[in-house]
Amino acid sequence: MPVWIEVAVSLFLLFGSLFALVGAIGLFRLPDFFTRLHGPTKATTLGVGAIVLGSMIFFSSRGDGLSLHELLIMVFLFITAPVSAHMLAKAAMQQRLPRVDRTRGEPWK
Fold first, then answer.
1. Residue 68: pLDDT band by 50, 70, 90 thresholds?
2. For residues 69 and 105, what is the distance between their CA atoms, to the nearest angstrom?
3. Cα dist. 38→18, 53, 84, 91 in Å?
4. What Cα–Cα distance (Å) separates residue 35 from each residue in 16, 24, 51, 93?
5. What is the DSSP string of 28-53?
6. Cβ neighbour number for residue 47 with a 10 Å cutoff
7. Measured between alpha carbons, how far is 5 from 65 in angstroms, rounded to an integer?
8. Which of 26, 69, 88, 91 fits a 20 to 30 Å CA distance from 106?
9. Do the Cβ atoms of 43 and 22 come closer than 8 Å?
10. In contact, 81 and 41? CB cutoff 8 Å
């Protein structure tokens, strides 16, 4: 395998792991549901997308042809993550979950 492919795969894996870690820390550290929702939907989605892209490059470079399974995983991930986050946020607004004062917006008034 050429060195530039190894470097590209390594960079995507490191980039994705860093974003997944930041998303997990955000999920743990942020104060209320509405701010915690950003961790897994923004940073972790980008992190998992980068990891899957690194996987796609790796398995495509092994000579078996273009690996489209990972591309389908990424499309599914990028379509379902915002939809599920929107549904969770709407349910939380309907339940009038408590929020900290720093969280802006009060759509249920």
1. confident
2. 40
3. 16, 22, 12, 15
4. 21, 13, 24, 13
5. HH-SSHHHHTHIIIIIHHHHHHHHHH
6. 21
7. 15
8. 26
9. yes
10. yes
